[in-house]
Every structure is written in structure tokens, then in C-alpha cells.
Design brief:
Strand order of the largest sheet: 5-4-3-6-10-8-11
Order of helices and strands: HEEHHEHEHEHEEHEEHEHHEEHHEHHHH
Radius of gyration: 25 Å
Distance between the termini: 43 Å
Oligomer: single chain
Helix content: 40-55%
């Protein structure tokens, strides 16, 4: 009951903070003196062809204030995040509070040789006989293949188990698991972790994912070079196909990967598509559940969390763990082929992210995540206001009026959209230049955000959806 009330409060808190930020900006705009509105000017372009333009622009003081405010907020968030990261590496806090902080790990392993870095791959699979062969093939094609592959077959009713064994993988079949992916992985890890040394890493990989050829090689090199490193995550890209909806998702993933690269690998989320962990990190999480971090003691994955990869990331960070996502550790993962499936996926992601924040509260580790949620909430108001303003302008004017100032601002926005998806190929670039389709897609995601907040505020139960083989074949 207490957790339910806390989740409701978290949704309301995000709404309140977002509304206050929007109201504050509105007050600034109202307080600024716009001056007298001049009538549009007519420019004769050619014989019989002219256009109207309005050279009015916001007061320079307001523009300067907006720029300064943006820079200050961005710098403050980035600076605080760097402070937290540096504290994790250098802080003399006791090992009881931050058992996997770099300082603690370096002290515990000084002068100890734990052997070469090895990789055991865990692939949770529920009825994945169609996609599993591609995943296993990408593992065998690695420049440095894994030492062992374990397929965690969870309540499968198809040929997943046989497909895995035919490909040479070991299989663990879950027993009475009612907690989906997280529960299946917990069962596998309980039997696996006690037998692993400090350098025997565990890679958790989705059954619908293909790795870049050097993924494991690069990850092993990172673990070898830094014994305090607790996790290496992949940068994910979308599979081909699925028309315009697929391109929307590929552009989104391309921008996210680019952002992580610009952050020099500093991770927001250790993707569930493919991430590697030191046993020390997973053991520390299991041992700290119920005391330092939320969850059931002994479980690596929190079975209550809707987004177990996001929750595990916050858990490891909260315990002081160092992690990274190298630019060359990339994966190709499945996309949602229909709007309905995308709605279910993103609603789960959004609710899971906020519920994880409700579970952990406001801490130095979670401040960055809270800022993200408030930023998303603010974008809901901003984008909705933009569409409303465009609609009212079109309805109110008999003739289109050009606004040079806003055209300039819009051109910068278009350039940013283009540059951030450039590596995605010509289709990504063309879609980004048209702008409006992607804004509509962004509005769709904003509606999902609002739906998630409303559901949390009213205490509605969240669901966990799985893209079935039948659904994949139907959409193909």
C-alpha cells in the first residue's frame, strides 16, 4: 500500500514540477514588453507574385534570458552528474554503503590476479525459435567468441530448447517462474554466480539481438584495462524494415547512440539487448536488495520492475559501480512493427522508468533521471503548444505570413535533426529534413508519457507485453 501511494505521488510530482516550469516561463513571457505589433510587410517577388512577412521578433533580453537559462540548466545537470561520477571513483565512503565503488574494488583487488577475462552469455528466451538462430549465429561470428552460451528457456511452448541445443548452446529451463524475464534470469544467476571468479563476466543478451563483430572483443579489453569497471553496455540500433514506423524508431535509436558517444560512453541505461557484468556487481546487487537498494534479498533482477534493465542500471550506480558503453559495442535489435505494439512497449518503458524513480527516491544517482522525466513532461507542453499555435495561425490568417526570425530558429532545428541522424543513411536524412512527421512521432511518444503518468496517478495496474512469434510473422 505504501509503495502504491508513493508511485501515485511520483506521477503527480512530475506533473506538478513540469507545470511549474511551464508557468514560470509563461510569466517571463507575459512580463516582457512585446511592444506594438507591426502589420506584415508585402514583398514583391515577381510579376503577380508577392508575399507577406513579419520581421517582429521577441525582445533581445528575453532571447538572451532563454539562452542563458538553457546553458545554466544544462551545465548544472552535467556538472552534477560529473561530480557524482567522480565521487564514485574517489570517495572514501565505507564499503558497506558503496560496495562496488572503484576505490573499494581497487583496494580489494590490488595485487590479485583473477585470470583472463571470460564471458558467459545468458540469453533469456520465451518462444524464440524463429529469432534465436540469428542471435546464436552473431555470437559464433564474434572476433572473440564467448566461452559459454546459456539459453534460459522460460515457459517455452515452441522449439526454442531444441534450436538452442542444435546450435551447441547449453540450456537452462526455468521452474515455476511467474516473473517473466527477470525471474528466469534470477533462477539462472543463482546457480551460476557462486562458480564465477572476479574476471568471469556475465553477458545478458536478448534472443532477438545481433551483435557487431567485435562487441565481445572490445568489452573484454575494457574489463582487462580497468579492474574497477563493473559493466559494459551496448549501443543499440534498429533492424531494417517496418516502413515509416521502423524508420522513426531507427532515427530515435541513432540519436540516442550518438548522444552516448558524445558523453564518452557515460551510460543512461545498460541496455537489456546486450550488456556484460562483473560477478562482483551482480553479487553486490543481490546482497544489497532490501537494505541499500529496493528489491527482494538475493535477487539480482527486481521482479517488480517493469523495466528491469533500467532498474539494474540504477542499482549498480547506487552501489558505486562504474559502467560504460563503448561506441564500437553496437547491437541490432528488433523494432515494434505496429503502432499498437509500439504503444504497449513505450508505455511499459515510461511507467517502468518513473516507478523505478519512485522506488529509489531523489538521490545523487537519480537526480539526472528525474531531470529527464521533467524534461519529457515539459516537452509535452511545449510541443502541444507549438501545434496549437500553428493551427490557430493557419485558421486566423487569410494569407500565409513569413516570420524571418522563427524561420531562422526553425532552420537551426532542422539542421540539428539532420546532423544527429546522418549516419543512419539517406532514408533517415530525408525523414529528418521534413521535420513534421518526426514531430508527430514525438507527439505520439508524449501522449504515451501522459498516459503512463495518468495510470500511475490513479493506481492502475501496468502490463508486460511480449512480441510473439506470431505477431512478428503477421507484421512481416
Amino acid at each position: 500500500m505504501k509503495n502504491d501511494r508513493l508511485r501515485r505521488f511520483t506521477g503527480l510530482a512530475v506533473i506538478a514540477l513540469t507545470t511549474l516550469a511551464a508557468a514560470g516561463l509563461m510569466l517571463v513571457v507575459i512580463a516582457a514588453d512585446p511592444g506594438e505589433f507591426a502589420r506584415p510587410h508585402r514583398l514583391q517577388v515577381a510579376d503577380g507574385w508577392s508575399l507577406l512577412y513579419d520581421d517582429h521578433m521577441p525582445p533581445w533580453l528575453l532571447v538572451l534570458l532563454a539562452v542563458v537559462l538553457t546553458v545554466v540548466i544544462g551545465t548544472a545537470i552535467g556538472g552534477f552528474e560529473s561530480f557524482v561520477a567522480n565521487r564514485s571513483r574517489r570517495s572514501p565512503e565505507g564499503a558497506l554503503k558503496r560496495p562496488i565503488s572503484p576505490r573499494t574494488i581497487m583496494a580489494a583487488t590490488r595485487g590479485v590476479y583473477a585470470g583472463e577475462v571470460t564471458v558467459t552469455v545468458l540469453i533469456p528466451a520465451h518462444n524464440e525459435e524463429k529469432s534465436l538462430p540469428i542471435t546464436l549465429a552473431s555470437l559464433k561470428a564474434q572476433s572473440t567468441p564467448p566461452d559459454r552460451i546459456l539459453v534460459v528457456a522460460d515457459n517455452c511452448t515452441d522449439g526454442t530448447v531444441q534450436v538452442a541445443r542444435d546450435a551447441g548452446a547449453d540450456v537452462i529451463e526455468t521452474v515455476d517462474n511467474r516473473h517473466k524475464k527477470a525471474g528466469g534470469l534470477n533462477q539462472a544467476l543463482r546457480g551460476l554466480l557462486p562458480h564465477l571468479g572476479d574476471n568471469d563476466t556475465v553477458m545478458v543478451m536478448d534472443a532477438d539481438t545481433a551483435l557487431s563483430d567485435r562487441f565481445i572483443e572490445i568489452a573484454k579489453a575494457r574489463f582487462t584495462a580497468d579492474r574497477a569497471l563493473m559493466a559494459v553496455g551496448g549501443l543499440f540500433h534498429g533492424e531494417p524494415g517496418h516502413g515509416l514506423l521502423g524508420q522513426f524508431q531507427r532515427n530515435e535509436y541513432t540519436r540516442y547512440s550518438r548522444e552516448i558517444e558524445r558523453r564518452r560512453g557515460r551510460v543512461f541505461v545498460l541496455t537489456g539487448a546486450a550488456s556484460l557484468f562483473r560477478p562482483a556487481a551482480l553479487r553486490a546487487v543481490a546482497d544489497s536488495r532490501g537494505t541499500l537498494i529496493p528489491g527482494v534479498p538475493g535477487d539480482v533482477y527486481d521482479t517488480v520492475a517493469l523495466t528491469e534493465d533500467n532498474e539494474l542500471t540504477i542499482a549498480i550506480k547506487s552501489l558505486g559501480g562504474l559502467m560504460t558503453s563503448p561506441r564500437d559495442c553496437t547491437v541490432v535489435t528488433e523494432l515494434m512493427p505496429t503502432w499498437g505494439m509500439l504503444w504497449k512497449q513505450r508505455l511499459r518503458w515510461q511507467r517502468g522508468a518513473i516507478e523505478n524513480l519512485a522506488a529509489y527516491g531523489v538521490t545523487p544517482t537519480t537526480v539526472r533521471y528525474w531531470a529527464q522525466q521533467i524534461g519529457i513532461g515539459y516537452s509535452v507542453i511545449a510541443l502541444a503548444s507549438y501545434f496549437l499555435l500553428i493551427f490557430l495561425t493557419v485558421v486566423a490568417l487569410d494569407e500565409f505570413v513569413w516570420f524571418p526570425f522563427w524561420i531562422t530558429v526553425g532552420s537551426v532545428f532542422v539542421l540539428e535533426r539532420l546532423v544527429t541522424v546522418w549516419r543512419g543513411g539517406w532514408r533517415a536524412r530525408v525523414l529528418s529534413v521534413f521535420v513534421l512527421p518526426e514531430l508527430v512521432f514525438d507527439m505520439f511518444l508524449n501522449v504515451v508519457f501522459v498516459k503512463g503518468i495518468i495510470d500511475m496517478s490513479f493506481g492502475r495496474e501496468a502490463g508486460w507485453s511480449h512480441l510473439t512469434t506470431a505477431a512478428k510473422e503477421t507484421s512481416a
